[in-house]
Amino acid sequence: MAIELPDDLIRLQRAADDEGKKLEHLDNDEREKQREVWFEAAAKAQAAVTKFAQDNDLNRHDAEKQLRQVTRHPQPPKG
Description:
- It is built from three helices and no strands.
- It has helices at about 5-20, 30-55, 60-70.
- The longest helix is centred in the middle third of the chain and has 28 residues, at about 30-55.
């Protein structure tokens, strides 16, 4: 079942993923600070997907799975 995800939800998840990717290139103190930034961004995305699922009477797990699919494995545009 395809779920129509709002753009703001997709942007939040992409922002969280981008913050997580930054951890790869940091050392010690910088890494710990970035981990906090990543955690905060991920928490915002998680809260948003939970609210979206509740507001639309959807299973949160299914909505989150679709969101991760869209943001991490995007399909090429059709046409």
